[in-house]
Amino acid sequence: MPSENEMFYSVIQHGLDFWNASFFCGSAAVLRRAHLDLIGGIAGETITEDAETAMALHGQHGLNSVYYGKPMIAGLQPETFSGFIVQRTRWTQGMVQILILKNPWKQPKLTIPQRLAYTSSVFFWFFPFARIVFYIAPSLYLLFGLRIVDAYFSMDLLAYTLPHVLGAMMLSNILYGRTRWPLISELYETIQSMHALPSIVATIRHPHAPSFAVTPKGERLDEDFISQLALPFYAIFLFSFVCVIAGVIRLILIPGDLGVIALTMTLAAINMIFSMAAIGIMLEKAQKRSAYRVPAESLDATAEWHSGNTVVSLRFLDVSHGGARFTATQPLPRGTLGAIRATIPAMDNTVADLPSSVVRVRRMTNGQWEIGVRFAPQTIEERRAIVALVYGDSDLHAANQRARQRRIGLAEGFAFLLRLAVTHAAENFQFLTRLAWQKIVSLITPKWQRILQRLFAG
């Protein structure tokens, strides 16, 4: 599916740019030095120095920004959930600081549309309050009998609530469905809310207190493990499950409250699905590959394998700064040393020889061979050519972006979320079961271990 940032960069920044309110996001930006000197350099009172700097340039001097929406850089993202939360918590705290310390409605040179745009960008980060309310609200009736809504199932819910909800979701899907699939925003908010909410409250109480926390990047995971931040999501799942059971009991005891029971049970069931998806995310998978592979089938570059007198035509499948994967009409012996002769589109189609070694050979069903190579550059020029090949072609990255930016319907979106929740939560619970079993086995004597092994083997 489209990555999380694509909605911001492909949709929201274009909208902000229409009102001259697109802002600096820390990378992929060019700022005029003379303009930075006007405000004393990159701002630093908040921990989101990029957005603070942009608002100072807009708000204190009435300067203009322009957003150019084309992929032109590649960067690192967090590889673990804990790294993701460190990054998002910093963004949350910084935007709350901007609201309190740099109120956009007190900036003298901002236009009304710019003030609204910055206010919207800041207030988005208060979503944990609403998300937590959504999790608590069904329990107020199902567990405590407090009627959070006075509705008849057939008349009010079906005639008013359901059309409104479906209409809102359909409109969202029309506006930005290519970059954010249905219900996925709610999942993103769920996994962030539990850890972001305390940070928001702390920042409101002490707006100068937050310090800059560097996002862990470039991590390699040698084995699967459960994130140390997983506990709140197990608690949400259990809480939602109890609410659903309470709803079944209320339906039996108080059938006259069908409308409110149906509504609150539906909300609790949806909360349970989101919590299951979050639990699935908490299982961190081993990630031994140190470099991300970029799909390269659309790469406009010819390639040949050269080793002694052997020349084999190759077709790119994917590429990273560590190696590449090709298809070829004939196999290459594993361990063979040679060079990939490739055209580099980002270097004006310069032809470069990239020293490589064959590390994988596999026959494909169509009769061709899949070849995996590891790059072994010896000079800075060869390294530059590899970087240009992998990261330098904006058309390649734009093509890959377009390939995953497709719109799906509401039913398909719900099915995707449900499949995500069930399959990944099951993996998580299976992993926990294995850990528990290993712990039990480690606590018993070798004699009983052998007996249990024979028993289960039988």
From TrEMBL:
Under Gene Ontology molecular function, one entry of this record is: cellulose synthase (UDP-forming) activity
Localization, UniProt:
Cell inner membrane
Q: Which residues form the PilZ domain?
A: 287-392
Main localisation = membrane
Q: Name one GO cellular component term.
A: plasma membrane
Record domain Glycosyltransferase 2-like: where: 12-161
**Membrane topology value:** Multi-pass membrane protein
What Pfam families would the database entry show? Glyco_trans_2_3 (PF13632), PilZ (PF07238)
The protein's name:
cellulose synthase (UDP-forming)
Lineage of origin: Bacteria, Pseudomonadati, Pseudomonadota, Betaproteobacteria, Burkholderiales
The gene for this chain is bcsA
